[in-house]
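During the first year of the project, the team set up a workflow for recording each protein of interest as an amino acid sequence followed immediately by a discrete structure-token representation. This format lets reviewers and collaborators read both layers of information side by side without switching files. As required by the reporting guidelines, we include two representative entries from the current panel. The first entry is reproduced here exactly as it appears in our internal archive.
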Amino acid sequence: MADPVQGSAIHRFEARYVAANRRPRRKRLPYNGRMGKVRRIVEAAGGILYRIVPDSAQTDAHRTDGDINDVTAPDAAELALTETTGTTDPTNPANPTNTDPAAAAATASTIAADIIDRIEVCIVHRPKYDDWSWPKGKLEVNESHRHAAVREIGEETGMSVALGPYLGEIEYPLAEEGSKTRHSKDRTVDMKHIEYWMATPIDDTDAEELIDALGPIHRADIGEIDDIVWVSVTEARKILTHSTDKDVLALFVDRLQEGAADAQNVIIVRHAKAESRKTWDGTDENRPITPRGAAAAYALNRELACYNPTRLATSPWMRCRETLHVFSWQTNRPMTHLDDLTEDAFAENPNRAWDCFRNEIDHALRHRETVAICMHRPVIGGIFDHLRELCAAKSLTKRLIAKTPYMPTGTAVALFVVSSPEGPRIIDIQKVSPRVY
């Protein structure tokens, strides 16, 4: 017999009331399947801070002194450059006397192995997890991974640094933060995503000049980092606590074998957004950047400071000079005008513009300093055509866009260049964009 309440008018009314007042279904968001909560990704950045020590300076594997003034990377790197290229003139790296490719390759391999043996890397100890790892940390609000890497390395090691070639990224569940093994394949839980760079110490003078552009860096609390050590690559494999940190070390060794310890940085900057040609009444060379362009140029300073460019070169036209002007003022580093990189000069003689840029590459390699060069859209397109021929891998050529506008206004690309028997070779290209907020 049917339940009299089940078919009653009261029951039907209640059913309609519940259906009419049921909450609409929410849009599905990312979640972890077990808990039903929104999946969270924590962004972080760090790096492998390293130095090259002469054979005579090698001591015990553990080095806790933290003194970087007694060993400098340039001496060892210049030695590697001389032996690899077969020339005894360090001021002429582009014209080696040893032209035998097989012999040059064998020599380069030997030198790479020798450099790795003389590399010391900096590892930090975190008392909270009682682990040894690379210096790293979470991104602050409106901060790029690049800037976070420089800031975190500085905070955790007490040393001012400049970034080098990019190493790669890792990701692991947040719950495995203190675990030795971080190779979980579960990607439905909260994750930590970290990007890593190579990094080298810079001297106190450069660090002081970069403060206004980079921003302040404060030493980490003793409860966060209570010890740092300098160790060889071999010892680092033994000391590092986590499997993911050892993965990053493998990427570092791969870079060293490419010659990254000898790489110099040449940064191409496209000037910030300028006033429209249609509305500007003055001459093209005096066309200034817009207020929005000025904001992008100011924000770009923070990213350029991560690489410590000590030579600033630019087209003498207004929009290029204004793009680098504030960085020049903040760092007290003068700008050098390159007349061959104006739009008119490029249109008249593109080869002369390339020769001018190539001289800047040679300057960076010869003087071992980072160079930043501000140029115009048409000039960048012509320079890119030549730079693709210098890329060590085809994958790098794709980062040098072949179509106009080649680069957005107010952005940069960092080229890491090494000397080789065939001339300069690009081993890494990094796109650099400002955070305007």
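The second entry, processed by the same pipeline in the following quarter, appears below.
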Amino acid sequence: MSDCAPPARAPGARPAPGYEVLAHLTRTGWLDVYDAWSEERACRCVIKTVRPDRLGEERLRARLLREGRWLLAFSHPHLVRAYETFEYPEPLVVLETLTGETLSHLIGRLRRRPAAADVALLGVQLCSAVHYLHGQGLLHLDLKPSNVVVDCGRAKVLDLSTARPPGSAPPGLGTFGYLAPEQARGGPLTEAADVWGIGITLYELACGDAPFGTGGAVDESCGGQWADDCPQLERNAPPVASRRRLPAALAAAVDGCLRADPASRPTVGELAAALDAPAPGRRRHTARA
């Protein structure tokens, strides 16, 4: 973020009729995110807006509104909900406030690694959300712990700003350490890219860190700047079993997601079935609405 970037809105600002800013939550390379109050609903909400210094970029305005329209139309227990979008006086998206914490925060504060059953349950829920998105004709393409909020064992997937239909994409679209190899290279993307995203998220949850490091997100305007340096293009992730003890079937399911060849990864349905298979001492669970 530039030192001369304009300040975020102060508490009390009214970015749209019926909404009042309570606090500025975060600023990314192109977005401001606010904790806000909805007068109509008498509850807190989250507002995403394009940063004031980038409001002139029509591509970013359209990208935010596209995400808002998708989330307004979609309904799934493991996807964040949108309440409303505004195009004027500036584009913004109003989202539900989620309780709980991001998976990345949870991983950072846990003293012990989660139980295998908890890793499997999260995976089933991620598969459920991704299956729904694929049914709507979209790939998420940025699945990672910071885009998952967990509360009392229930996960919700955030952020469809990188989502797009299957097909060609610029190299490096997504987040550096979480890119599937085919995302890093650029070219045709399929549902297998999201299987990789589920797998690398579960790997980090199970082992405590990501196998290829982390790093910032890129988009169409700067895609490919890291493509030649992505370690996932040079080596495979260490097997989960080399990092911690898990049931063999669970470890194999996570490792299978991280195969370099997209065609050799399980489908979302196959992955969900493998994660939900009963194990000794564990009751079968599902992630239905």
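For the second entry, the following points were noted during internal review. The longest strand covers residues 19-27. The first helix runs from residue 58 to 73. Both points are flagged for discussion at the upcoming steering committee meeting.
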